[in-house]
Amino acid sequence: MFDVEFCAPVVLFVFNRPDHTKRTIEALQSNLYASSSDLYIYSDSSVDDDSKRLVDEVRAYIRKVTGFKTITIIEQESNLGLAGSIISGVTNIIEKHGRVIVLEDDIVTSPYYLKFMNEALLYYRDKPKVWHISGWNYPITPAQYTNDVFLWRMMNCWGWATWADRWSHFEKNVDKVINELDEDDIYKFNLDGTEAVYNQILWNKKGLVDTWAVFWYATIFRNNGLCVNPSISFVDNIGHDGSGVHCIDVGPTTPPKLNMTRNIEFESELCESIIATDAIKKYYLSQKKNILFRVVRKVFRIFSKNWRSFMHIIKRDV
Questions:
Q1: Is 9 within 8 Å of 93 (Cβ atoms)?
Q2: For 192-242, how does the pLDDT look when each residue is reduced to its tens digit (9 = 90+)?
Q3: CA dihedral 88, 92, 98, 103 (to 10 degrees)
Q4: Whole-angstrom Cα distance, residue 227 to residue 131?
Q5: How far from each other are the two terminal CA atoms of the chain, in whole angstroms?
Q6: Which residue of 146, 217, 255, 317 is 20 to 30 Å from 209, comparing CA positions?
Q7: Could you tell me the pTM of the whole model?
């Protein structure tokens, strides 16, 4: 039986999205363990006048937030960026408390999210093979899984948690990752060739992006760690509207039905689930096919439209 007096601290990273922040916090306030949780809110500073107005609006809102055991707000004086904010914020809080639950300002949670995360942190605390707890899972039919959760190699960062002894190994060292992973490692790192996660390492090397999550995954991977995922998501990412860092606008989507399971049965066998991993591989491959189909269809429409216009001009001028 979990004692709510030992709830892990929740760290929320916010920037310049007041509407997203409000929805994220309101959902978190509705969580079963909210009133027993210490909430730390890291507010990154603005980069220009436009973002300053929105940052000020976010800060005015979070200063009025209630519903948690304690609320600590850290307002950065300079802009650290998302990667810098998360790395420093998580490190500071986890060194103080020994464990942490992490959210960004576009993650809407189920009322049982904090319960799941805290109980998972307790269940796997003394199982060093497990490095990471995720609150999210891919939109795959739950019938493909036999349990409430599964373990696998990859890390999802839309609502996650870990422990100080695991996070202490984290390092964002591009050259070290590149030098230590050979071709076989990269193939496995890319979920046996079904994804292209390793490209993010190369993009960081070239200075095209500045991210953190892929390096946490690399840390877990290089230490042969496992990550826990729920079979049904406890969170929904509402940031795919073009407002977030590294998130593109995917257009209107139907919000998923979040996990409302109160009592979760955790997986005791500490090995990667073949069933779940294969299902996710198929999902990745299907997404690639869908993207390719949409690109081809769009090119065809543009070509057809231009061809018709071209033929109309020819007929008119003949």
A1: yes
A2: 999 999 999 999 999 999 999 999 999 999 999 999 999 999 999 999 765
A3: -50
A4: 6
A5: 85
A6: 255
A7: 0.87
